[in-house]
Amino acid sequence: MTCEDVAHLLCVNFNQDAKSLAVGHSNGYILYKTSDVLESSILLDNADCSPAIHDAIIVERLFNSSLVVIVSQKEPRVICIYHFKSKNMICVYKFIKSVLNVKLNRDRVVVCLEDSIHIYVLKDMKLLHTILDTPLNRLGLIDLSPAGSSLIAYPASAEAGSVHIFDCMNLSAVNTFTAHDGPLACLKFNSDGTMIATASTKGTVIRVYSVPQGTRLFEFRRGMSRCVTIYSLAFSADSTYLCSSSNTETVHVFKLEKPEDQEKKQEASAQSSSGWLGYLTQAASNYLPAQVNELMTVERSFAHAVLPGSDKKNVAAMLTINGQPHLLVATTDGFLYCYRVLSSGGECDLVKMHRIGANATEANRGDSSNC
């Protein structure tokens, strides 16, 4: 079976802890168990999908449970709540406009339309609250904290890069803060909802803010001037790393160092610099405009991975395997790549590659690459 035999995928999406990968295709959806990504040649967690659901463009799984939320390309205004082990369609909800995104945790299900957000109680799918007349959100940008207080984040403006935080448990607005000058392109909570990563449509700078305060904690630059489209942002489970993928072939991994670690690093760097050069650089930075000084102090990526191709949409995630951080990247042309992130940083090693999608099972039986 050649690469061309693997069907184009309609969506690829990791679950809340990156231990499961959901793939949507013309015949439905498939779930993969990513914790076996290094050892197993076949990752299938569930190959049997509902015969009533085809062309899945949104597939959201609740952690490693049997509950999935699906939206079909043929019926984009409908969400289906499905229990795949019992093969039971729990409920179906219809909306007046297309569903652009769905997020869920153990307490809430959040459905995003272009101008409204609908919040449901997970245990009985009762409609709890609707946020009407939100700023036009054609990309369906929204995220729900996987644990903690069930916070959602979404754009507070269609033109400016401001973020609005809403508490889905107490049904109250929490905070609004400006993350970027331009419109938002991506946002993502960490595992406990205490930090959020953001990127604008320009795509050169990625920032991390405290939640709910909205205080800037980190700023990372993935490029000096090349504007890109950021496809995904994802924290590691312990919030030590943050990865970002885009429409380029490079996936970046940033290290979120504690303030005391940053100070030690800066001191070591200053001591290693030649006396006059270090002195002049520090002195100059005190007199430079804020925008220029930011360019001097912003952090670059700690590590990076290079994808074989850059023309397909992708999603990235961080997963700890055998005590070591790994970078997972799934692409809509039917591949799952696993890279080892070295403690020293730099270019990540491609250690495994799997084919994913409707026609990929047989391909993986005879060709699961160890790289």
TrEMBL record:
<keyword id="KW-0853">WD repeat</keyword>
<keyword id="KW-0072">Autophagy</keyword>
<dbReference type="InterPro" id="IPR001680">
    <property type="entry name" value="WD40_rpt"/>
</dbReference>
<dbReference type="GO" id="GO:0005737">
    <property type="term" value="C:cytoplasm"/>
</dbReference>
<dbReference type="InterPro" id="IPR036322">
    <property type="entry name" value="WD40_repeat_dom_sf"/>
</dbReference>
<dbReference type="InterPro" id="IPR048720">
    <property type="entry name" value="PROPPIN"/>
</dbReference>
<comment type="similarity">
    <text>Belongs to the WD repeat PROPPIN family.</text>
</comment>
<dbReference type="Pfam" id="PF21032">
    <property type="entry name" value="PROPPIN"/>
</dbReference>
<dbReference type="GO" id="GO:0006914">
    <property type="term" value="P:autophagy"/>
</dbReference>
<dbReference type="InterPro" id="IPR015943">
    <property type="entry name" value="WD40/YVTN_repeat-like_dom_sf"/>
</dbReference>
<keyword id="KW-0677">Repeat</keyword>
<protein>
    <recommendedName>
        <fullName>WD repeat domain phosphoinositide-interacting protein 2</fullName>
    </recommendedName>
</protein>
